[in-house]
Amino acid sequence: METTKAESANLVLKLYELRRDPEMREAREWYFTKFKPQSAEEIVKLLTESFEGSRYYRMVTSYWDMAASLVNNGAIDRTVFLDANTEHVAIFARVQPFLAEVQKMYRPTYLKQLETIVMTIPDVEKLLAGRTKLLDGWNKAAQKSSDVGFR
Questions:
Q1: Of the chain's two ends, which shows fewer C-beta atoms within 10 Å, N or C?
Q2: For residue 25, is it within any domain?
């Protein structure tokens, strides 16, 4: 059963509310400003070596994979979701270069819902490149501010 646009709008607003949770905000800040994996092995190690150590990573990626699942399965209208959100693209951009290998090493369905929704966006490669550039800039700015004692 497909949802109406109004139901979808309410669900998108609920997703937005969940993103405002203080711990989720911290996790998102960490993901955007400190997380910059260099390999699939690094991501798998993060996932498997420490439950507490991977908390922020799991919080952010599982949130957006769940949201994508709601869209991919018809619970939220795709157009409403895509018109209201872009953060999921940045989340995916950070892991996308390593995702196929992570799926082989960790779990074949890992982040498949997120991958499905992002990879069907028109001009996705250009969009992903832009988000990667943005995240790289945020990483550099965060590193620079931590070098001079700012949070």
A1: N
A2: yes
Structure tokens at 128: 């992903």
Instruction: Assess if residue 100 is contained within a domain.
Output: yes
For residue 66, give its domain range.
5-142
Tokens of 10: 């309410």
Domain annotation covers residue 147: no
8-65 pLDDT tens trace: 999 999 999 999 999 999 999 999 999 999 999 999 999 999 888 899 999 999 999 9
Lookup result for tokens 């990573």: 57
pTM: 0.90
Type of residue numbered 27 = A
CA distance 89 to 16: 15
Q: Establish if 150 belongs to a structural domain.
A: no
Nearest Cα neighbor of 80 from 67, 71, 89 is 71
Residue from 52, 57, 22 nearest 42 by CA: 57
Collapsing DSSP to helix, strand or coil, 121 comes out as coil
Indicate the Cα dihedral angle 127, 63, 44, 145, nearest 10°: 70
For residue 133, give both structure tokens.
């550039």
